[in-house]
Amino acid sequence: MISAGSRSTMEDLMMNENSYPFLDDLRRRCYLYFEEAADPQTGLIADRGHADGSSFSTYASSAGCGFGLAAHGVAANNGWISKEEGASRVRKMLSFLVNEAEHERGLIYHFIDRMTGQRALDSEASTIDTALLIAGAMHASQVFQDDRELVEMADTLYERVDWRWMLGDNGCLHMGWQPEVGRLPYQWDRFSELTILVLLAIGAPSSAIPPSCWNAWRRENVLHHQGESFISYPPLFVHQYPQAFFDFRGIVSSDGRNYWRNSQLAHLAQIEFQQSLADQSPKRFGHYGEDLWGLTSSDSSSGYRDWGGPYEDGQAQPERGIDGTVVPSAAGGGLAIAPEQTMRTLQYQKNTFGESVYGRYGFVNAFNPRRGWIGSDVIGIDTGITLLSASNLLEEGVWQPFMQHSAAQRAFRLAGFRPLTA
């Protein structure tokens, strides 16, 4: 069984003269994005930007800002910037989010204008994106816990959210709210990245939802990998975002599920899935394999795609649109989860394709070696999850501060998590 983030994994990396320098260089490049894509007045992080740093989007994603808050904490703890500078960057963003940014009962919009904080792209006031923003604020409040003003703003961001307003009669949270339609009819009612949302809503300091909500959503699409079952969801980011903050290692929840192992199996199964595509159709997918894999929501030569694998039927049906694209953050976001497998492909990608895919901010968002297409952009959430996962692998740099927060501990306790026994 792979054991990510363990002492032996760290020792192996430190002994490998190539692995540690590569990982440290990768995450420093990732952090450069959060420095250069931050609005100088508000601190909000651009949702995306050109890989060469020549331009950035005028709007931010609230989830990307959450990753940015955590990234500032990681940078300060590693000495890339001073503690004072890290706290200043976090304070600037939190102050704007708390005092200026548009919200609905504490829910921040999915996309907001970087300069004004107003709703952008007709997006929804989003439960999941607000949760990821709060997770980053929680991490930062622990790293900079001596800064009373910063901690109070982080607490306010969390405390003002009306989670119960978003709760349906079935115990599942709604995905968001829009002024044109009100509360969205869609719910977080089956396995997805919802685990971090539900836990934060259960552990919330105010308007918390009942602990029973942890068991309200469906554990569907159970697949198997080499005799072990796991709950599937094709894009790998679903298995990575919650694991970047909550430390699920060595525990099981009240439903008996080991969510850490579940995420490991999802990564291993995707490698196997992409190898099967190569075997089935070598002309289209012959480049896929253990050296070159990775599918999660990303850019492509034909627009943004919500792809992944494996699927329940094990096939790449045409409507799924898999076209040979490789998404580096699919492996980058899993560095702490499946280090051997993710390091193998990321180093292969860098060594094989060089500066065409690895540049100022680390890896481009996506590329397709069969079609000769290389994405022009990086996206904040994908660059961010790579930085956070690499930091968890190298020093548990997100897990340790985040899990010291009382709300994180309370969430696990109320949801019924307990130590894993052999």
Question: Would you kindly provide a brief summary of this structure?
Answer:
Residues 185-405 form the Glycoamylase-like domain. This protein is mainly α and 422 residues long.
CATH classification class: Mainly Alpha
Shape, per Cα inertia axes: globular
So, the CATH homologous superfamily? Glycoside hydrolase 144 (GH144)
Beta fraction: 5-15%
Structural class: mainly alpha
Supply the number of structural domains: 1
Which keywords apply here?
422 residues; mainly alpha; three-stranded antiparallel β-sheet; two-stranded antiparallel ribbon; Glycoamylase-like_cons_dom; Glycoamylase-like domain-containing protein; UCP028431
Task: Write a structural description.
The structure is a single chain. This protein is mainly alpha-helical. The chain has 15 helices and 17 strands. The chain has helices at 7-15, 19-36, 62-77, 83-99, 127-143, 148-159, 194-202, 237-245, 259-280, 282-285, 328-332, 339-353, 380-395, 399-403, 406-414, and strands at residues 48-50, 59-61, 103-104, 107-108, 111-113, 125-126, 176-178, 182-183, 222-225, 228-231, 251-252, 358-359, 362-363, 367-368, 373-374, 377-379, 418-419. It has a 3-stranded antiparallel β-sheet with strand order 6-7-8. A hairpin with a 2-residue loop joins strand 3 (103-104) and strand 4. Residues 3-7 have low confidence and may be disordered.
